[in-house]
Automatic annotation (TrEMBL):
Keyword Nucleotidyltransferase: no
Keywords assigned by UniProt, alphabetized: DNA-binding
InterPro entries (UniProt xref): NA-bd_OB-fold (IPR012340), Primosome_PriB/ssb (IPR000424), ssDNA-bd (IPR011344)
Domain of life where this protein originates: Bacteria
The species this protein was found in: Nonlabens ulvanivorans
Classification via CDD domains: SSB_OBF
MF-aspect GO terms: single-stranded DNA binding
GO cellular component, one term: nucleoid
Alphabetical list of Pfam families matching this protein: SSB
Full protein name: Single-stranded DNA-binding protein
């Protein structure tokens, strides 16, 4: 049996401070959103800001890393 792993790195701005939840099993997770913005010029030469929001749920060691993220004003990596 093979194990499939995906790795995604989002660099952007937090929508809110990560919310830590404790499940009935005792496991913890962090929930938050990150906005990423792609800036480019369109065919008319106008600057376009294309912002996309990503809803994140982090578990295990990823959750522990995200717990340290506190500021909505600074770019964050998670």
């Amino acid at each position: 049996m093979s194990t499939l792993r995906n790795k995604v790195q989002l660099i952007g701005n937090l929508g809110q401070t990560p919310e830590i939840k404790v499940l009935d099993s005792g496991n913890k997770l962090a929930k938050f959103s990150i906005a990423t913005t792609d800036r480019y010029k369109n065919k008319q030469g106008e600057l376009v800001n294309d912002t996309q929001w990503h809803n994140i749920i982090a578990w295990g060691k990823n959750r522990r890393h995200c717990r340290a993220v506190r500021s909505k004003r600074e770019p964050n990596r998670c």
